Amino acid sequence: MAGRSVVVGVGHYLPKRVVPNAEFEKTLDTTDEWIRTRSGIERRHFAADDETTSDLATFAAQNALKDAGLVADDIDAIVLATSTADLTFPSAATMVQARLGMTRGFAFDVQAVCAGFVFALSNANALILSGQAERVLVIGAETFSRIMDWTDRSTCVLFGDGAGALVLERQEGEGTSQDRGILAIDLNSDGRYKDLLYVDGGVSTQSTGHLRMQGNQVFRHAVEKLSKTAETALDRAGLNNDDVDWIVPHQANIRIIQGTAKKMGVPMDRVVVTVQDHGNTSAASIPLALSVGKERGQIKPGDLIVTEAIGGGLAWGAIALRW
Ligand code: UT7
After folding, report:
1. Residue 53: CB partners within 8 Å, gap ≥ 6?
2. pLDDT tens digits, residue range 7-18?
3. Domain total for the chain?
4. Domain of residue 105, CATH code
5. Is 114 annotated in the active site?
């Protein structure tokens, strides 16, 4: 017997405002055609001026709790992945805790940029396996529209806002790769690559800053590192690429998603793709894709999923889990 962190609920929330690529043609030297062919993105959602990351996170969490048939006080901990929290402190997670009406347990944020949800899920799994929590709400929520340089066509057309959430619950498994829940994890970072993707501001430098990216360099690292981390996680679970029902990748660029699947020998009809509708929502992209994938009827109980992401740091990783 072995403790496992099993997904018992999933939900998401997207802000109302949808911005198609054509909107950018009005203010930038760009085209719908370029954005579509270079990134796969067709539209993205942007938060309203008075809507914050913790608002999006709260709605996603409520939807995940509803899906699980649970209420806030059934939850022992909230782990929220974001790089765009409402305030410098307190954490967005504690704001969500209050908004949900959760009067016990604990909540904190995790920051690993676009890989944030993988790191948050790993953290939540560790809390469950170490006996510190029985049920954990794991959220990815972002308002990257707040850190865009709207004059930089190479970045501002790529990102969007949104949130997704999972409820993880401790259940007993057999200790085999047939168990439901998180089976294996691979996390990595390499701070030498800071300059490839960063925000040129922050609390300690006394500004908010804007996202800066050497896109083609990040692209190269992504294709090389994502298939490797996914295969490492699968190998640790005693599985291989042929066992995968769904790759649920971070949704940054359709060409990275296709390149990773090709390297892994997994056909695209076994990859959940939402980048066309959401753009890159950083730490929110994986839980959004899991939620939409379930809604579409793609992801079913018992499916073997490998989820992978890379972003600023660089930080990257993958998780093998059975739904
Ligand atoms: O989630 C975190 C991880 N982030 C990522 O995974 C993003 C990784 N990178 C990418 O997705 C791609 O590198 C981009 C979509 C950002 C760019 O695609 P690319 O094929 O790597 O293009 P590039 O950066 O090499 O740029 C090609 C050309 C450049 O023009 P020149 O120098 O060849 O004349 C750019 O100036 O495309 C130009 N360009 C644009 N043209 C029209 C850059 N942005 C735009 C634009 N519209 N919006």
Report:
1. 82, 84, 85, 86, 92, 141, 142, 143, 163
2. 999 999 999 999
3. 2
4. 3.40.47.10
5. yes
